[in-house]
Write a structure and sequence with these properties.
Strand content: 15-25%
Number of helices: 4
Strand order of the largest sheet: 1-2-3
Number of strands: 9
Distance between the termini: 42 Å
CATH architecture of one domain: 2-Layer Sandwich
CATH class of one domain: Alpha Beta
CATH superfamily of one domain: Classic Zinc Finger
Helix content: 25-40%
Oligomer: single chain
């Protein structure tokens, strides 16, 4: 399949950025660069080559299968050095570490409050 190049897109995109589009069944997506489109295709459209041996889930990327299999094994390889808690994914460890550091990177644009997680900011803004 060929990629079509378009300057007209419903998403607000800077004029100098080319937008790559490809029809996706039941989806209307646009990507700001070709690599984002290819990653999306590989994840959601391409053949799922990596089958979990413990359930019916399958993945197009081996890393996603490895991360999924931790659900079955209970492996939590990411350790918090401060309190000993372990996590399935590195991004969960990073979020957790903010409880120790007090870091609050998500700033409300309507008041002066900051939050440690984006989901808390979104809830605050409702």
């Amino acid at each position: 399949e060929e990629l079509s190049l378009s300057q007209n897109c419903e998403m607000p995109v800077k004029e100098e950025i080319e937008v790559y589009e490809e029809p996706v069944p039941k989806q209307d997506k646009a990507f700001s660069d070709k690599s984002s489109l290819l990653i999306h295709k590989k994840t959601y459209i391409d053949e799922k080559l990596y089958q979990c041996s413990r359930c019916d889930k399958a993945f197009s990327q081996k890393g996603n299968l490895i991360r999924h299999e931790r659900i079955h094994t209970g492996e939590k390889p990411y350790l918090c050095e401060q309190c000993g808690m372990t996590f399935l994914q590195n991004n969960d460890l990073i979020k957790h570490q903010r409880t120790h550091t007090g870091e609050k990177p998500y700033q409300c644009n309507q008041c002066d409050k900051s939050f440690s997680r984006n989901s808390i900011l979104v809830q605050h803004q409702r």
